[in-house]
Amino acid sequence: MVTRRTVLGGAFAATGAGLLTAGGLTPLFAAGSAQATAADAGATGVTVPAPFTVKMPTLPVLSPISTLGGQDTYAVTIKEVAREIIPGVQTKVLTYDGHFPGPVLRARSGRRVVIRHRNTLTMPVSVHLHGGSVSPENDGGPMDTFGPGTSRTYSYPNQQPGAGLWFHDHAHHMESEHVFRGLSATYLLSDENERSLPLPAGQYEVPIALRDARFDEAGQLVYVMDDVFGRTTILANGRPTPYFEVAARKYRFRLLNSSNMRFFQLRLSDGGQMIQIGTDGGLLERPFTTDTVGLSPAERADVVIDFSRYPVGTKIVLENTLGPGTPDQVGKVLRFDVVRTASDPSRVPDVLRTLPAMPSATVQRNIVLSMDEDGRQEPRGLMDGQEWDAQRIDQTIAHGTSEIWTVTNANKIIPHNFHMHLVQFRVLERNGAPVGPAEAGLKDTVRLFPGETVKLHATFDTYKGTYVYHCHLLDHSAMGMMANFRIR
Rounded to an integer, what distance in angstroms lies between the CA atom of residue 130 and that of residue 112? Predict the structure, then answer.
């Protein structure tokens, strides 16, 4: 296990140039491509299969051990196992109940979920329900860990609207490696409104966990903190650049970017349209049609693709147009193979939900994310110029109030994003302009490319206590880009 802060020399500088121009996103991989190829070739001796030769599995669904007492109770074992990622190779991974990637837990708004996690690893862990409105003792904070050979029970009341949440390790200085090695899973919370809509369901609602990985000559995962160029094998539901067979009808895809560092900009290879219906905090008020979906680490998107426009036999690639890495390495995510016809009673309504009102904000705060860009061996991740201190309270908030936070990425090269525990916020502005439809719903994570500023509206009317906010490029938060807020 490598947990010290190490950086590939100059890697992030090249990465940032490959992500951005003065005008915003570029679909090219030019900057850093040569370095990416060299770093990957030096680390990967196994034969990663050619694209679209491996089938993408669907994620297993956890079953409760009890449904008595008005709650669903689960027992989960956190353990290291060997699983096939690259065909014919057994790779050691860290898992929830032996599943790589993690399983799906389906919950209902208003019905409590209780999970007893047993830690069989050799290091402490902490389980955070990302996007969940939970009390401090159930939040899975960075220092609220439980050790090897012990268990911890988390209780989630699910007193919030339906949303595509997820849970992952959050043990400080270890979270980035633990998640890289597999400790993440999907938590789909549905509500009565969502269940009443005629959206694709059952086998036609498919959670997809996207991420990148780096392997050594023996096919084992290689973790180096802040590894920018080495993680160039793209995994969809734990398999490298797979194919997925679909019927010629509508599908609902619950997309999660479970990468530590990688940003995705997704499109269909024929330029075809997708209908985005939701984001981190659940359904949007209205669906919108788009030809691209962007996901920074930890962000989710709820997307409907109608394959009825394609004849049986069509093969459509879901592409990624962002580096680092060459297009051959990271430009293909998965392929949809239209193999049959099927009836389709589903549809996407014009109105999906009514978002909660935004109360007047009483306080405004400015938050600055930054990281050393001078090439030093031990770069620091900073929030408002300070590394995280578990004992320091950085923001004190009055319970029941709403606030506006203006969050800025002060770096010139390095991208970040921003995640706040406990609350789902609204993004009001990006770089002084109103946000587009993809950011118009409830969010808990928002991207910040170099020099960008976002303005957020958050209401703190549920629990009192201490929580964290941080960059969800997990290598960055492990390096100190995190702060505490206390609601009282």
Answer: 16
Q: Where are the alpha helices (DSSP H) in 279-344?
A: 327-330
Rounded CA gap, 280 and 444, in Å? 6
CB 207 within 8 A of CB 297: no
CB 57 within 8 A of CB 237: yes
Burial code of 293-325, b = ≥16 C-beta within 10 A, e = fewer?
bbbbbbbbbbbbbbbeebeeeeebbbbbbbbbb
Q: Is 477 helix (H, G, I), strand (E, B) or coil?
A: helix
pLDDT in tens, 239-259: 999 999 999 999 999 999 999
Provide the pairing of β-strand 233-236 with 282-290: unpaired
Report, as an integer, the average pLDDT of 286-297.
98
pLDDT for 377 equals 86
Q: What is the mean pLDDT of residues 423-430?
A: 98
CA 177 to chain centre: 15
CB count in 10 Å sphere of residue 116: 14
| Backbone torsion region of residue 19, taken as left when φ is above 0, otherwise alpha when ψ lies between -120 and 50, otherwise beta | alpha
User: Rounded CA gap, 229 and 39, in Å?
Assistant: 6
Rg value, the chain, Cα: 21
The tokens describing 28, both together, are 């090219």
